Amino acid sequence: MGQGAEGRPELVRPILPRHGLEELLRGWSSDGQVFEALAAVTELDMDVQWSRQDMERRSARVLLDRVAPDLALFPTDGRTWRDHLPVSSTSRREVLGRPSRPVNWPMTARRFGWPPQRFVAHPRSRTQDETAVRALVWTAHALERLVREVRPFAPALISRIERPQLALSQVVAEELTPDDTVRPDRLDLRDLAGSGTPWSRLARVAEELVRAESDLEFLAFDLIEPDPDLEWRLFHLSVLGEVLACVRALGGRILWRAPINARQVGGPQFQIIVDQDCWDLWFESGGAANYYSYASPYRKATSGIIRNQHGSLGSDILLSLPGKRSLMLECKWSSSGSYVGRDGYLQAASYAIEARSGLGEAAWSYVVGPEEVVINRSEVELDWPGGRTVIGACSIQHIASLVALLIEQ
Questions:
Q1: From CA 232, how far away is CA 333, in angstroms rounded?
Q2: C-beta neighbour count of 301 within 10 angstroms
C-alpha cells in the first residue's frame, strides 16, 4: 500500500459516495463555497494545511488538462484569429440631397421623378458579431487566469497550450475593446458551436470553463474527485451531506448558521430542530470545548508538551443535543483497513472521552470509512458509569440508522 503525498495511505479505485455530497451542493451557489469547505477539512496527521487557493489551483490543473486537446488546435498567431473574426452586414435606407453610393435608382425615380432632386441610398455597414466577440474575450481572460495558477506546478502542461493561448490573448488585446467581460450562456455557445472552425473548438473550451464556474457537481465530480489529494476531502463533505439528508428525512428543520470554514466559525454551522429539541451540527468541531465551556481532557493531558500544534480535539462531524447526547463521526478515506480501523479507532475513542467530559451523558463515536473497507457496522459499548459510551466503525450507508438512533432516543 502506497502513501499519499502527506503520509496518508492511498485509496485504490474507490467509489466516492455521491448522495450526501449532492445534498450539500444543492445548498451552495458558487464554486467559492465548495473550495472554502474543502479548505476547512483537517486531519491530525497533516503538517500542512491547504488553503482555498491551493484547492483552486489543483482543480484548475485538471480543467486545463481537459481542454488541452481542443486548445492545442487553436490558431497559434493573432492574424489567423483576426481573419476568422465573424462579421455581420446591415443596411439602412437614407434619403440624401446628392448621390452617394450605393443609390437605389429605381426607388429614387419612383419617389422623386427624373431628374431627381433627392436620392434614396442603402449604405451597408459591417460589424463584428458581438456574441462571438464576447465569448472570445471571456474565454481568453479565463484561460489567462488558469495558466497563471497552474504554471508553477505543471510546466509541461503549460508548454503544450501556451502558443495558442497567447495568440488568443493577443488578438483580444489588439483588436477587441468590449465594454465588459460577460460569461457566455448556453445559447451563445450553441450558436458559436455551429459557426465552423475555429469557433466550434472555442465553444467546446468555453463550455468546459463555464461549467467549472457554474455547475458545482461538475466541479466536484469531474475536476476535484480525480485528484487523490482532494478526493478524501470530498468524502468528508459527503458524510456531512448524508447527515443533513438523514435529518431532513426525519422531519428535522435545518438552519444554516455559518459558512463551512472551521477557521472562521466559533460555533456549530447548523442548527437542527426536531420536535421540541434543538441540535447543533458541527463540521470540524475543534472549537466545541470552548463553545460549550467544558474542560477538555486532551488539553489537560498534553499541557506539558511544548509546541503542541493541536490545541484542541474535534471530530470531523459532531451532532449534539447539548447536555444530553452526541454523535461524533471521524472520516477515514483509505483502502487500508489498518488505517481506517486502528487510526480511526484511536481518534473515535478520544472524541468519546472528550464528549463524556462535557457534552452530555451519552456519546456515540464512530470512524466512517469507504464501503469497500467497512463492510458491516460494528461497535462496542463501554461499561462506564453515568451514561452510555459507544465506539464503533461504519460506512456512509450506516449513517441514517445512527442519526435516527440518536435523535429518536
A1: 5
A2: 11
Give the other-Cβ count within 10 Å of 178's Cβ. Answer: 14
Q: Give me the half-sphere count of Cα atoms (radius 13 Å) on the Cβ side of residue 151.
A: 11
Whole-prediction pTM: 0.80
CA distance 329 to 317: 5
Residues 352 and 363 sit within 8 Å (Cβ to Cβ): yes
Residues 6 or more apart whose CB falls under 8 angstroms from that of 249 comprise 400
User: 404 with 246: CB under 8 angstroms?
Assistant: yes
Q: Please state whether 277 falls in left (phi above 0), alpha (psi between -120 and 50) or beta.
A: beta
CA–centroid distance for 147 within its chain: 19
Q: 227, 298, 285: which is closest to 6 by C-alpha?
A: 227
Q: Which three cell numbers stand for residue 21?
A: 455530497
**Sign of the alpha-carbon torsion through 79, 87, 211, 144:** positive
Spatial separation of the C-alpha atoms in residues 338 and 341, rounded to whole Å? 5
Half-sphere exposure of 171 (CA within 13 A, CB side): 24
Enclosing H/E stretch for 11: none
Vertex 218 angle, CA 220 and 269, to 5°:
40
- Residues of the chain scoring pLDDT < 70: 1-14, 43-49, 86-98, 100-101, 122-129, 175-180, 262-265, 308-311
What's the rounded Cα separation, in Å, for the pair 347 and 174? Answer: 59
The answer to whether 271 and 255 have CB atoms below 8 angstroms apart is yes
